[in-house]
DNA sequence: ATAATAGGCAACCAAATGGTTGCATGTCAA
DNA sequence: TTGACATGCAACCATTTGGTTGCCTATTAT
């Protein structure tokens, strides 16, 4: 889980996920296309995404095809965000009360 | 949004949020209690959480009270995770098809 | 008044991060 | 078979990160 959060912390990696979300099954060079980064930089990002199980790859000859795996993202929503979802309304009303009170 | 993701990337910071989720409105020293970190380290983490708007603070005399703000977390769920939610089923069936085919 | 308490600030440090360049390897096409 | 293409590996570099220690300031309690 920690690896997923860390993987999602970087904007370049999130944008790579966005790219795969738009078009799944791209090759490495396809993913590099138009990016202000060297291929090797992208390779490193992909490796981190693979470690976090956010991207799965298949070799096809000399090409490496990249597939998005949105399951860990879904799990973050399920296991972690949901927990703070309930807290939201509580926190908001608490904040309201706090801001309206004078005794501070 | 980037700041929120970055703030959530660190396990210590997530655990601080967990602590505030369990008990809102704690002072700095309360938050430090039982942690294998100096107060100053916690201060830095809190600052990052404040920058990301995940924690709001109120001064009360010499104490600084910390309140969880779960709204940015909720927004991540709404704006970002939701996007990959739909992709989940697609990706899973695609993966299944992929794994079942022989021609690779 | 003064000591204890709660927190802030700044300098410093090691390790992790995000990126680069250079070269090696494997696969496809002419 | 040989050149071009897709990717892999490793060394290196600057910056960021997560943490420390030492000291300063403000507030509270005795």
| Tally of individual domains of chain A | 1
Write down the Rg of chain A. 19 Å
For the secondary structure, the number of strands of chain A is 3
Query: What overall form of chain A do the CA principal axes indicate?
Result: elongated
Strand order of the largest sheet of chain A: 1-3-2
Q: Report the helical percentage of chain A.
A: 55-70%
Compute the average pLDDT of chain A.
90
Under CATH, the homologous superfamily of chain A reads Winged helix-like DNA-binding domain superfamily/Winged helix DNA-binding domain
Given helix and strand content, the structural type of chain A is alpha+beta
Largest sheet of chain A: 3 strands, antiparallel
Oligomer: homodimer
Order of helices and strands of chain A: HHEHHEEH
Distance between the termini of chain A: 40 Å
Tally of helical segments of chain A = 5
CATH first level of chain A: Mainly Alpha
* Largest protein interface, residues of each chain: A-B, 38 and 38 residues
CATH topology of chain A: Arc Repressor Mutant, subunit A
Tell me the strand percentage band of chain A: 5-15%
What does this structure look like?
Two copies of one chain form a homodimer. By secondary structure, the first copy, chain A, is α+β, with helices and mostly antiparallel strands. Chain A has one domain: Orthogonal Bundle (Arc Repressor Mutant, subunit A), CATH 1.10.10.10. Chain A has five helices and three strands; from the N terminus they run H-H-E-H-H-E-E-H. Chain A has helices spanning 2-8, 11-22, 28-32, 39-51, 71-100, and strands spanning 26-27, 55-60, 63-68. In chain A, a hairpin with a 2-residue loop joins strand 2 (55-60) and strand 3 (63-68). Chain A is elongated. Chains A and B meet through helix 1, helix 2, strand 2 and helix 5 of A and helix 1, helix 2, strand 2 and helix 5 of B. The first copy, chain A, binds a DNA duplex (30 and 30 nucleotides) through helix 4.
